């Protein structure tokens, strides 16, 4: 064992900052069944700071059969207490407690309770409790993750009033090279390169990092034409100029592959319009303050880091330092334009990741319930023409589940496979989807019977998938890193298909 | 919710197993049988169905929990590893006090104690050390492995167990489905392999790129990144300083040595960013791993096992990928068979070769080709060309290595290749077509690819 850090494998994803946020967070879990306990398990293992479990039920036979955090010997004990005990065994770094009370009752009498948590997870809540919890969280701007398993289907829903992410960590890093719009040192390096190129040997040419080559050729192009390449022809011409520098050199090849950076590396704030629109937000967070400072600064501050480039060590290191210095200078200038209560480190952090800043806001649960918007989800329906696959489209199951919930509210029980129940359910399905889906299956009755078959049961393996997606979203939200879903993830285990949609 | 909701059954799996459905296995796009609800199918699940879990790591721990709580009564688990501190952030069947113990035994013991009715049987050891008779006893195999090599071998074993008669028909009683999961950070995939019916693991080998390496000249002459300095310490300095000993990547002393050397080199070149953590990452090729992704993929795999065992619903046809860092993106699709898959197609591959190529060079080129072989042994219909093992046979066939192909085989000859990446019963046929347009030597003198696909640390 070469490391003593049990968090090593996850620190490689979210770093010390993400871990610090996680270990400072106090999370509330409502609902200690299989779905809820599995979700919390996936937060306790990576080291959430503290949790509270709220549940009013007692361990029954079905819990023992389908939950890892309820044993035969626990039958009759409060689920919240048992779950808390068994979850705490997983990680000595984590603190936890339980409250044995029905969630509906708790949130009706103490709606402010939600306000004391970094995040709330509602697992397997009945429609009424969910409404109460959803409202309490919305009012206090506490992020809510709703997890729900029903037989072979399930969903994760996020309710976020406003969620800021600085490090969204996109799959493909967008390097900020400024080769078409160079800062002073880069411009000078480019000029030197252009001046010396003819006199250099092939060996010397091969030592220059491609960013310098691009800056040099871009400057000459602009001098001759007055603008950077815009048309396809200009761009081809530009590429040709690069190849002419020596197509057999690795750095020149790299320059050629990265030509597009010349016409896409703008420092103009316009490309950040969406993010900067939040400078008008009513909630003046530190991020909003920095964004306002950047708007005054007038252009995108240089990020700093650069990718590896075939080059001589000293030239590459010098270039790397030049970018870092330019980034520091920009961040310092922005610092002067941001109120002093925002710490320097945070200003630097936002400047460095400005391109990746995202702000996410979802609809409220109440809104969705009142006027579901199936358009986005329905688009996905049109993608397949195979009726077998179409019948399993996740959005159809979303509609079906809503109809079943409506049945549950009305009748205080889950529908059975009895033809009268099925007829009722199908009528609801049709009402919910009429005119809102481009296609409805002629097998609605099969969907209805299937849901009745599921008995709203928490099948462990399906609950485990749903819970893990919920926990992953929770970690992303707590760390303020990576992009959360907006707003519903739906999993259909019948054929292992899933979709994310906004409804 | 149970206070208001249905949940009339004491065990949630009964809802599925005892009630008919319009969406049974037979109604899906990858039917594996016809569902008939009732006690019989439940009896099969809890008493007869024998499932092997391969790997007791991040995926394995989850799969064991999921299967036992889905009613599987006869579970077996195999893993060669012992528990490390860095497993504890996700491998929840292990505690700090278990560090150093075999994963399979500790995991089995935990499940047996926690889940009523569970019976998990552990095996400590390598997948490759078990024979066909061992694998033949299972109804299905679910794998959560951290490396490509063991998955290739397991896949080839299960494909070879599916018997095909002279008409090309597969004997269904010999087909053992393999449900395979893999994760990396927030990404993962789950797939169902029904040997001879669907694509197999080998069909998709191209989608698993070989381990990332840095060009030797960059490492030696123009290092720019901390990774280059670390690789220099590992690849160049270590063998010089310790010619008789390989690096023990689990030894803090060895890793500290690499780190110190890398740091010194980085300082000489003004390169920043060499840390102990990064050194571990590069040398051990560490893949980031989190509890949640493992639980997602394992849950999907275990659900597939349940559906395959009971046929109570449709099946994953055949591949689901999950990407969780930019929102959640998933894609479920049929991974098509590779028409010339060396493992499951049975097809003979044509290979254009220069007759003046030596046998040694042919072997090298096979290792570097898309076949990604490790130590190929070659034979013609009537004689052995080169055998890597046993020692005596290796010595006897070694003189052939320096001979040219024209001395050893005729144009259009078919040769049979076996390799330790595949189980013993898998041999691929190559038809050698002589062509003077092909190179006469195989360049790259890179003999040290023993590490490729070697041990990795996720999930």
UniProtKB/TrEMBL annotation, chain A:
Write the protein's name: NEDD8-activating enzyme E1 regulatory subunit
Pathway noted in the entry: Protein modification; protein neddylation
Per the record, the GO terms for biological process are: protein neddylation
A Pfam entry, by short name: ThiF
Into which family does the record put it? Belongs to the ubiquitin-activating E1 family. ULA1 subfamily.
Write down the Gene3D superfamilies for this protein, in alphabetical order. NAD(P)-binding Rossmann-like Domain, Ubiquitin-activating enzyme E1, inactive adenylation domain, subdomain 2
Which residues does the UniProt record annotate as the domain THIF-type NAD/FAD binding fold? 7-492
ATP-binding found in the keyword field:
no
The protein's matches in InterPro entries, at most eight in alphabetical order, are given as: APP-BP1, ThiF/MoeB/HesA, ThiF_NAD_FAD-bd, Ubiquitin-activating_enz
Q: A single GO molecular function, which one?
A: NEDD8 activating enzyme activity
From TrEMBL, chain B:
Pathway this chain belongs to: Protein modification; protein neddylation
Q: Which residues form a coiled coil?
A: none
InterPro entries with a match to the protein in the record:
E2-binding, ThiF/MoeB/HesA, ThiF_NAD_FAD-bd, Ub_act_enz_dom_a_sf, Uba3_N, Ubiquitin-activating_enz, UBQ-activ_enz_E1_Cys_AS
State any single GO MF term: NEDD8 activating enzyme activity
Q: Where is the active site?
A: 217
Q: Where is the E2 binding domain?
A: 351-433
Instruction: Tell me the superkingdom of the source.
Output: Eukaryota
Return the EC number.
6.2.1.64
Q: Which GO terms describe its biological process?
A: protein neddylation
Answer yes or no on keyword Mitochondrion. Answer: no
- Protein's recorded name: NEDD8-activating enzyme E1 catalytic subunit
Q: Which family does it belong to?
A: Belongs to the ubiquitin-activating E1 family. UBA3 subfamily.
Q: Name one GO cellular component term.
A: nucleus
Segments of this protein annotated with the region Disordered: 440-459
Under SMART domains, the record lists: E2_bind
Reported function: Catalytic subunit of the dimeric E1 enzyme, which activates NEDD8.
Which reaction does this chain catalyze? ATP + [NEDD8 protein] + [E1 NEDD8-activating enzyme]-L-cysteine = AMP + diphosphate + [E1 NEDD8-activating enzyme]-S-[NEDD8 protein]-yl-L-cysteine
Q: What UniProt keywords are attached to this protein's entry?
A: ATP-binding, Ligase, Nucleotide-binding, Ubl conjugation pathway
Reply yes or no: does the keyword Phosphoprotein apply.
no
